[in-house]
Sequence to fold (642 residues):
Amino acid sequence: MAGLIKREDIDEVRQRTDIKEVVDGYVTLKGAGLGTYKGLCPFHDERSPSFTVRPQVGRYHCFGCGEDGDVISFVQKMDHSSFHEAVEKLAARIGYELRYEDGGTGPSREEVGKRQRLLDAHKIADEFFRALLLTPGAAEGRNFLHGRGFDRAAAEQFGVGYAPQGWDSLLKHLRGRGFTDAELKLTGMFSEGNRGIYDRFRGRLIWPIRDIAGDTIGFGARKLYEDDQGPKYLNTPETTLYRKSQVLYGIDLAKRNIAKDRQLVVVEGYTDVMACHLSGIGTAVATCGTAFGADHIKIARRLLSDDGSGGEVIFTFDGDAAGQKAALRAFEEDQRFVAQTYVAVEPTGADPCDLRQLRGDAAVRDLIGSRKPLFEFAIRASLRRHNLETVEGRVAALREAAPVVAQIRDSGLRPAYVRELAGWLGMPIEDVSRAVGGAQKRAAAQAAQGGAGGPGASQGSGTPQGPGAPAGGSMPSSDAGAGFHRPDPRDPVAAMERQSLEVVLQDPSVLAGPAWDRFEMSRFATPAYAAVHDAIRAAGLARAADPVAWVEAVRQEMPEPLRGLVSELAVVPLPASTPEAMQRYCRDILARLFELQITRIKADKMGRLQRLDSGANPEEFQQLNRELMELEMQRRALRAEQ
Fold:
């Protein structure tokens, strides 16, 4: 049996992997100072970016929820994989051959993690389906694509394939690649009958459904033949890989454009996504057999960097009753976004795929360009349910529409829509304004009864405003942290100690030469920071040449409840915009720390000197004076070095 991965190989993978490149696959990161990046946390909902990554030290830390770790733990959490699987995935990513404690080259097939086996099976099936689309038996599938305006290049771009009509074509193929029936049952690609398992997708056009990292995790299949008794579209059922409430078709292709353009377009089907992308709308995605819900919003907000500085989410729906109902469901989730939400509905009811066929690429772009605010759509939809020719109908319509207007977040737009609603209803503005105000008060009262916050409320996004500022959420309380309290940021001594630890953890080169001895002899008055100081001394300078290994070594010397504090200090942005400015800042901070230490020691010795009887203890008196003189010389030397 293969053993554990060698510790030195784990360290090598950690150090060689660029954590920013890995995190970029899941979170939109923006520069936040020299060598530091920020984005919306993938582990909790927040409105302001507090998820911070510092590639130089190989760590991330969320100043909102306290999640922290290195590139291995990030992959573990995002992929729901084991430590072993995460290391193997990262090693494969950088082409590093791992060694194992028993001298083997890796685990046997039976020992490979279930998730990776599932991913492997999907990758092989994906290749199998794509290859079959080019065979004579797939003529009906190619005809379908051609009829929708998609050529071979489009099919290849989106990985479209074909599942043959037989009962066991894919089954035989995967068995031949070494997969057991027990493993294949877990993929969702097979159904089970009295005689065992058989292909779930038969005689259908196939779209691979990929996660945000680009791994195929499921399939969508479209019926092609009249004798097929199944539904028009058949998707992978729920599996450990594929959870439809968390999947967006096309997200792997759209994620870069979403982040760049600050736009997300939500359409209804696979061919609509294809039509949008081919028409120049590279931000389009689709849900997979379910409504656009809270889990989808989390993905979207991270990619949009949905922090209040712009961005838009555009829903496209058919113009029929079902499409309107879907749009109103989307409006119910609107408050979870900071980005503005819109709806684009083609008057004839044509979806983007039909529109592209009938009127070309420009018509698809025009559809998205004609978007209307989602709340306007919701208001007008509520009015259509009432007879506005009667007094009773108008009053009922006002009662239904007022809460919708009350939900408009933009305080500048809300009065404008009060006036619009008054015009649509033919009622006095004062009456409409009063109804909207009442709806606001009722909503506020309900929110107060239900607890603070509401949909989309941030669960903490306090980001430090500079060195020494507190970071919310990650410091344990006195009970959880073995007697440690969060330091008071107003305490100048605590602030000074924090800044020095930030500097030392992020740039250990400042401890070269006599600086290490001075730092080692320093006394930290703040308990939490004293613990970090002790951990740095215990870790020693042996691994300081590699910042990634250095921070990890310090973390391992810390009590478990306080390890997050090390990550926090290691990633907080320092106030410098150039390498030269960073060097000056680091030197200045350490000089201030050492001067503070000298001042403390001098104060102690001055106190002893004042209490001492110089006549009774002349030798001790002279010794203290010499020590005070030496300390003053050290202080002046520090000043001269600055």
User: Anything to note?
Assistant: The domain at 7-111 is CATH 3.90.580.10 (DNA Primase; Chain A).
